Amino acid sequence: MILRHLEFLTALARERHFARAATACNVSQSTLSAGIKQMEESLGALLVERGQRYVGLTSEGLKVLEWAQHVMTDFDGLQQSLAEMRSGLGGQLKIGAIPVTLPIISLLTTPFAKLHSHTTMIIRALTSIEIQRGLDDFSLDIGVTYLDNEPLVRVRRLQLYIERYVLLARESEHLKNRETISWSEAAAYPLCLLTSDMQNRRILDMHFREAGTEVHAVIETNSLITLWSHLRFGDWATVVPHSFLPLLGEMNGLRVLPLVEPNAAHAVGLVASDRDPLPPVARAFLDVAKQFDLRREIARRLD
């Protein structure tokens, strides 16, 4: 059994298709199948359910996959460490971020890229559940998510800022001279909100219930662009984190009102696997974040 065979197994588990897994590994399908067969013979265990197409891994295969993911991650980390000693940090940093954090993530990735110019970053919008899964199976290095609501497990945490909430709605006589609005009042507006599989939506629903009301979103979406387009070009309102506002810029015809009763706030931060050692790119990203006052930068941009 060789490292390449472990790569074949992890690719097959990820792609759930022999041909796609072979393509991901840049080998022929016959080479991939032969490599997995050799690994089965070496371990004396059947790893893949055989059929006309991919069915799944056996219980032994799932156990081998767990170890294979550890080995592959450690090997990638070793390669990054050796490259860092020779010519500086390199490699790929895989980040999963809940959608509501996407407007601020460039505040961290930009200084990181300037400091480590040989790295590349892949940023995916994911749910908190998908972030947990990605950290567990090592398909992610870093997650950006809530720290105090439905917290992730088996992770180290770094708080970045405290999220608060505002109503964005069309200017009207009713809102004239208002400085705040209650959650119960906001529930009466025609709302466009994120879908319920997003943790942000579950947080909003919780605070609406705390205010004694149930919210009904006429439009639900998992896309921030879709949400913003309805707000900008239609007679809709929405509830978003205050960290959105610097990204939105000029909001002609729209009013921003902080939500009160309750005065809700939640911690947002970085999470990474609690394993040691961390991949060098993940460690370096956390180091950059520790030196950067994201809370102050968001406040500055709001001003």
Features:
12 helices, four-stranded mixed sheet, five-stranded mixed sheet, 11 strands, elongated, Arc Repressor Mutant, subunit A, D-Maltodextrin-Binding Protein, domain 2, 303 residues
How would you describe what is shown here?
There is one protein chain. The radius of gyration is 23 Å and the shape is elongated. The longest helix is centred in the first third of the chain and has 29 residues. It has a five-stranded mixed beta sheet with strand order 2-1-3-11-4, sandwiched between helices. Strands 6-10-5-9 form a four-stranded mixed beta sheet. The chain contains twelve helices and eleven strands. α1 crosses α2 and α1 crosses α3. The chain folds into three domains: 73 residues, Orthogonal Bundle (Arc Repressor Mutant, subunit A); 111 residues, D-Maltodextrin-Binding Protein, domain 2, CATH 3.40.190.10; 100 residues, D-Maltodextrin-Binding Protein, domain 2 (3-Layer(aba) Sandwich). The protein is an alpha/beta fold.
Main sheet properties: 5 strands, mixed
Beta fraction: 15-25%
Q: Give the number of DSSP strands.
A: 11
Number of helices: 12
CATH architecture of the largest domain, by name, is 3-Layer(aba) Sandwich
N/C terminus separation? 59 Å
Specify the overall morphology.
elongated
In the sheet with the most strands, the strands line up as 2-1-3-11-4
CATH topology assignment of the largest domain = D-Maltodextrin-Binding Protein, domain 2
Under the CATH scheme, which class of the largest domain?
Alpha Beta
Uncertain residue segments = none
pLDDT average, as an integer?
89
* Class from secondary-structure proportions: alpha/beta
- Calculate Rg over CA atoms: 23 Å
Q: Looking at this structure, what is the CATH superfamily of the largest domain?
A: Periplasmic binding protein-like II
> How many domain modules?
3
Order of helices and strands: HHHHEHEHEEEEHEHEHEHEEHH
Helix content range: 40-55%
